[in-house]
Amino acid sequence: MIHVQHLTKRYEDLQRGRFTAVDGVSFTARQGEIFGLLGPNGAGKTTVLRILSTVLEPSEGIVTVAGYDVVRDSAEVRRNIGFVSNNTAIYDRMTAWEMVEYFGRLHGMHRDELLMRMERLFEQLRMNDFRDVPGGKMSTGMKQKVSIARAMIHDPPVLIFDEATLGLDVLVARNLLGVIRSLRDAGKCLIFSTHIMSEVERLCDKIAIMYRGKILDTGSLEELRQRHREDDFEELFFGLLSQHEREHGRPSEALVDRGEGDVLA
Ligand SMILES: Nc1ncnc2c1ncn2[C@@H]1O[C@H](COP(=O)(O)OP(=O)(O)OP(=O)(O)O)[C@@H](O)[C@H]1O
Questions:
Q1: Considering only CA atoms, which residue is closest to atom 2 of ligand 1?
Q2: Which of 21, 88, 102, 118 has an alpha carbon within 20 to 30 A of 223's alpha carbon?
Q3: Which family does it belong to (predicted)?
Q4: Closest CA to 209 of 185, 175, 233, 177
């Protein structure tokens, strides 16, 4: 469903000059699968997801979503994906129902089809209790559900969650992970990016560990554990990052010195 081959993205940065944020990344994510992108802040996860959702163009490499090329067929790609982040704008004065309806119209959905889809979605995400609550009066959990409903209104086969649990309390985050699992069971292809190891361990069928623009390894949790002969996922993760630092001439303490200790969160 998603094929990423030798993807590289360079930014022209005023301070750093030409900076490679994503460096030769390849992976495949399939239908009915939750694919986790795990990495500390700055690893390049958001850049990859922005390319998948056609907001940015690759510098090199080929990326296809549902068979469509993100550069050549960007409109088709957008029809096939929904994007959920932790900072989606929710309009204070629009109700949950109005917001989701508005996004359905933006996707050009016909009225009857839109209403049917909305009824199903509000039921599925348990949003009927707050159908008529305006954004300004919603809890964080309600807002997050509206963001998901908005991303799913056109029933895309691919859903992308970028650090979607950031800032949510444990209960809301737990509910969100439940929703993501049920979408997987309904056959969607899900990409879930996070810096939180436990979420990836509990949720993802396949994991790509990303650091400094590269994928250091990829596989199911079990495959990764066996390959690295390490049952403790946290040890495995830091082991891979430290090995990368050693091979690239940096001391492993740099992980902590650079303030990247928060990958432990
Ligand atoms: N528009 C830009 N111009 C220059 N550099 C950028 C730009 N956007 C991102 N970067 C840099 O690219 C690198 C990767 O950033 P990216 O946001 O993709 O990482 P991330 O893994 O999603 O981390 P985070 O969770 O902090 O967003 C970082 O060093 C970041 O500073």
A1: 11
A2: 21
A3: Belongs to the ABC transporter superfamily.
A4: 233
Which of helix, strand or coil describes residue 198?
Answer: helix
The answer to whether the CB of 2 falls within 8 A of the CB of 80 is no
Minimum CA distance residue for ligand 1 atom 11: 21
Phi, psi of 33 (to 5 degrees): -135, 140
DSSP codes, 84-141: EES-----TTSBHHHHHHHHHHHTT--HHHHHHHHHHHHHHTT-GGGTT-BGGG--HH
Supply the ipTM of this predicted assembly: 0.94
Rg (CA), the chain: 19
Residue owning tokens 């390490």: 230
pLDDT tens digits for 217-264? 999 999 999 999 999 999 999 999 999 988 886 654 445 544 444 443
Element (H, E) at 11: strand 2-13
Distance in Å, CA 19 to ligand 1 centroid: 10
CA distances from 10 to 58, 60, 76, 210, 221 (A): 8, 9, 25, 16, 30
| Residue 54 token pair | 């056609």
List, edge to edge, every strand of the sheet that includes 189-194.
81-85, 158-162, 189-194, 33-38, 206-211, 214-219
Question: Please, is 170 exposed, middle or buried when counting C-beta atoms within 10 Å of its C-beta (0-12, 13-18, 19+)?
Answer: exposed
Q: Give this prediction's pTM.
A: 0.87
Q: Are 191 and 2 in contact (CB under 8 A)?
A: yes
Q: Which of 10, 15, 20, 45 to mutate to test the pocket of ligand 1 (most atoms within 8 A of CB)?
A: 45
